[in-house]
């Protein structure tokens, strides 16, 4: 390919891949720069959640609904231009949230009612009906909410497919290339990206570095407050099909997503994969980029999983893995142009929901870059909202 | 002043036992944790066939008096302790049983976790009847049972000879021993190293004499590149190799056999050392002259620090046990003899390694449909497809699923890395196993 790209996306995780794909589909020439291997960090540590069930009514839910609508089309479009890419295993399997004690029932049904009012398909069911759907569910579960819209995909395959589409449309993906900072023109606007393999002239740079977005934003001279939040997931040996059918989680999940404390938080999410293994998540902990495995964290996850699905207590846990989620102080992603540096865009801070929000984020970012209409209000995701609101 | 901490040793093979004896004789309390019911490891496993061990094994599978021997117990996770050493998470009994899960703090720790056989993939290597040389030897030694009636032993390295001897001792007919290298000329090129291990060399000559008496054909530059059978092994195809291990066309032969024992050297068990934060170099734990790793309070001995056999492992264990006792505050005498044996043993190990390298031509043995990862049934063409879409790192593992099954990449990790040409960083990912052995979710949940 000759000529310079219009936009360079920094970071080839699921969000960077979705932004690059959307920009390329909008007609821009795109280069993706990744210091490691594509989809090798947070994206490779996720469960592939595409959820509306865990979002309270508000801007994140609107972005999630936009994303949920778009994901199947985005994946079909990518497969049409790059048919050899791996199958992203899109699976609208549905979610089931169960209240394990009486005290959790009331908040859960109230939460679901508010979601219904916001347009989410959330069906309150009793414990027995929940056990018909998920036979392994604890007899303690007294009430549950079924979310038929919840879906799952294989995030590494999805990111790989999106990047293949970027290439198929003439874009480039340069892995093993670290972004070092911006080149800025006389007006102060972005004129290029400096990397350890030379400078790439371009008019727009997208910061999609996930948990490392704070680092890159500082290199770019426009810091945004995005920090890592550690998470751990347990993986069981392969189990018979049907052991766990949906995404099943404990009703205390929502409380953990909203929490900002450094303390260990766990909430149970249990689901099976195409390979037959069952993934059991997850924890949230602010320990910087410390990747030491803490057995107390694994224990806390295991304890809650065994409460939700008692039969899992007999199952061997084969491995554990961890990753870092990119989180912001107000738990909303940062999507938009940086007012301090024209041409610098951010698409980051999705915490544990990057896979679910990626398709909507790519759409919104491409709309903002090209001036096309967007189906989501970008205002809540603007850069520097903490400072102007005094919420920091 | 509080009592000195005990020396905790993981692994009761030659290295761990020697460490236990050295630490005990320096006056340290010793705690010896091992996955097997009785001490000895793979090398000293209840061997009724080969007669009393001299030299290498020294005092055999003897646990020193007063040492706490925690047998039948696996370390399923290890966490570094802030002041040095590590907290060990233990599980006893069968993997699917409800074993007593507990923890043990080890401020001074010796990791003597050994190694497992390396096997290379080729068509049919996953047939029943194809086993590792180590498994065949263990069965022969502990049960006095041969793995089959007619066996072929193939691979590279001196370990093929004692395995063959064990099989003969257990009543099998060994149709051929196939050495992929040409080791005699290899040793001659490293005369200094071979001379340094003269005692070990004599042991190997003894094995060769048994082979000659039994008229077992011993062929060099020859390998098995296919195993055949209808559901179970019936025959193997052998082929001559060029010096780079590429098969020489037209040299194929078929040998009827119901057992094929493969040994292509050893892969060190590194997961606990990696979890402890020990630095590695070239796939082995880096240690200083006192067998201390880069992690405070953690020592390592035996195969994790370099493949060298039982005699070297025992010498390293003695050094590590002495150093560990010193780290607990006990006065010790420098183990000069053991230090000398370590130096000599490493020279011999280097000579052996030079004579028995794995040559890159083996990557031509598997076909596109040959499984490379057996747990997840990942074929060579699956690996190549995954490598095309995911260039490395965790994404490659998730895309290919190689090494994600029950063995956690112990069998296929290094093979996959070499077949795909992964970077060292990505290859080392296979040695990271935060859960070192599977543990029941209920045991995980019940612990404190």
TrEMBL record, chain A:
It comes from Nocardiopsis suaedae. Residues 6-368 form the FAD dependent oxidoreductase domain. It holds the Pfam family DAO. It comes from the Bacteria. Gene3D superfamilies: D-Amino Acid Oxidase, subunit A, domain 2 (3.30.9.10), FAD/NAD(P)-binding domain (3.50.50.60). Keywords: Oxidoreductase. This is FAD-dependent oxidoreductase.
TrEMBL record, chain B:
The keyword Oxidoreductase applies. SUPFAM superfamilies: FAD/NAD(P)-binding domain. The keyword Oxidoreductase applies. Keywords: Oxidoreductase. Residues 7-315 form the FAD/NAD(P)-binding domain. It holds the Pfam family Pyr_redox_2. Residues 43-66 are annotated as: Disordered. PANTHER family: ANAEROBIC GLYCEROL-3-PHOSPHATE DEHYDROGENASE SUBUNIT B. This is FAD-dependent oxidoreductase.
